[in-house]
Design goal:
It is built from three helices and four strands. By secondary structure, it is of the alpha/beta class. A four-stranded parallel sheet has the order 3-2-1-4, with helices on both faces. Helix 2 links the parallel strand 2 and strand 3. The longest helix is centred in the C-terminal third of the chain and has 11 residues. The mean pLDDT is 94.
């Protein structure tokens, strides 16, 4: 049985960096799903992420911290395995 992999990326005010991070993971052959959880950003992070094809975006209205955003992403993940990445990876 093959196990799928969801990549969860919590993001807060990472508009200048999020597209480059997503470019590293969106077409990776080992990753079946990329989920960005925008944690109430005020700088256009959600819009920058939404412009990248092939991701799933979850927008939180209010900033509740990285742990909360990670838990929301894990809950939403459709695959059996989950990879957590920071949004400022590059």
């Amino acid at each position: 049985m093959s196990r799928g992999l969801s990549c969860v990326i919590p993001a807060y005010n990472e508009a200048p960096r999020i597209a480059a991070v997503l470019a590293s993971v969106v077409d990776h052959p080992a990753i079946d799903e990329v989920i960005v959880v925008d944690d109430g950003s005020s700088d256009g992070t959600a819009e920058a992420a939404a412009a990248v094809p092939g991701i799933r975006l979850i927008r939180l209205e209010q900033n509740r911290g990285k742990s909360w955003a990670v838990s929301v992403g894990i809950e939403a993940a459709a695959q059996e395995l989950v990879l957590l990445l920071d949004s400022d990876l590059l």
